[in-house]
Amino acid sequence: MSDIEMLAVKVLRTFEERGWMLATAESCTGGMIAAAITDLTGASNVLERGFVTYSNEAKVEMLGVSPETLAAHGAVSAETAREMAAGALAHSRADVVVSVTGVAGPGGGTAEKPVGLVWFGLAMKGQEPRTEKRQFASSERALVRRDSVATALGLLLDAAYAEGP
Q: Which residue numbers delimit the CinA C-terminal domain (predicted)?
């Protein structure tokens, strides 16, 4: 069993125990986080929906990300990750949302936003959304995306454990 499969199983079991529903708001991972959960029996017990918002237009239309945020900070930013997570929470019946937006590569990076830069958002009912930044060392698209999925699943587990048993 891969590390992603193990993390997905832990997320599934932990969310089932808490009676929580999950939604994802994904850009550079293109639905891979939701897919990691739906690969498992019992996924419908925890996965409420997934938003694949690869384009800026999709982020605005589906999640309510502000065009001003995108213009000022870009798609790969803490501000956009935060608004993606908050928007997915508002547009779903989920208790917890994870969002991801980044530069998967191999092209598209800049000095300010290099390949491997990924921002994550986490939103939970009744709490302010938070963000986390990762700079993955690899410039290989598949590895950046895989590491992003593992990180997102880990953030979901961290959020569950922070809430107690």
A: 6-158
